[in-house]
Amino acid sequence: MVREYNVAILGATGAVGRRMIDQLAKSTIPVKSVKLLASSRSAGMVLKFRDQDLVVEETTPESFDGVDLVLSSAGGAVSKKFLPEAVKRGAVCVDNTSAFRMEPDVPLVVPEVNPDALKDHHGIIANPNCSTIQMVMALEPIRRKFGLKQIIVSTYQAASGAGQAAIDELKKEAQDYLDGKDMQADAQILPTKGDKKHYPLAFNLLPQIDVLEDSGYSHEEWKMIHETKKIMLNDMNAKDIKVTATCVRVPVPIAHGESVYFTVEDESATTQDIMDAVANFPGVGLEDDIKHQIYPQPINAAGKRETFVGRIRPDYENPGAFNMWIVADNLLKGAAWNTVENAEYLVKMNLI
Q: What is the second-level CATH architecture of the domain 5-127+336-349?
């Protein structure tokens, strides 16, 4: 008899939470019941799961009684408060915040890349940062076949990475610009709520995502560097692969782009070898036909689970070095779908 699971979605009313509901409905997980959890402000809202109308409940520790699986995207502070309570009550949690990512005993997992890390969980599994997820999806097949020495990434990250309010702010600023109004008055969120100044994103680029640290890097850049090492090498400070990042917010609603320069250990690898490795990796779509101007674009990736890769080409000045362009829906593969997919793997591997 197939076991069915009682599932709770924490942060159900947010942009990612709503997509988790949808992705769970489309998943292979045998669902017995679904509980939607949020803050007191959102309690009482009615959302659909498949053909059911579900009332959103205010989150309390007791909300997790009888729950087998928690999918969480309600902010780091909320995750730190409630997920240990869920684990105490016997649930396994997949968390989409940064709250637990760098904890040594918490697996940081992209299922196609490092599924075996799930075996070491102690009740909580962390979803990586959205921009990290799509980069390791594209680079892991290359690492496995040819080795990786260095990664230099520049991101082009969509407004939705800062939530629905950032999308709304971008749209308002764009309309004000077209109407000849001052956009600065609308800038309340970006580049980050946690900093002193805010700037408009419409018709602009912001080379800051998350807070700027004393090192000169933003925290988003720090995350990409150390999460990549933890996922690929199981050590956030590993030296075997050198990683550096520049993260930029761009006026796109959904789907992040990334320009990645990387160096492989096997210098005999050709561009076609790299393309073949990428094309055959699960969850990755190769869109690379320069004769017909085919390459990944955010407008086409939005709403899709896959990570799309194109513009693969060698650095003719440096043997073993290549460039590529990566695009993925940051709210799906970068968040909701990766979370649900981790849960699918937990079920398949009998780890719940």
A: 3-Layer(aba) Sandwich (3.40)
